[in-house]
Amino acid sequence: xxxxxxxxxxxxxxxxxxxxxxxxxxxxxxxxxxxxxxxxxxxxxxxxxxxxxxxxxxxxxxxxxxxxxxxxxxxxxxxxxxxxxxxxxxxxxxxxxxxxxxxx
Length: 104
Description:
This protein has 104 residues and is mainly alpha-helical. The chain has three helices and no strands.
């Protein structure tokens, strides 16, 4: 699972970088936008339920990591997911306003 979260973090980081540039190359803008949105949701959702499981520990659930490490890792995953979403939402309206302003 750590590899999965790391992969989504890398995909999200690349996607935000590609969205923040003025031109993502020959790649359509919807590709990094979709990947960033998926990475944000994956990091936030997986971090959220795993954090709650680590804190509540239902039915004798024991995390593989030390409890403090697991709590820190899942909290950072949630924060990274929210940061990705905030970045995507701040990039998209700015691009849309530029496009609208150009044609009016």
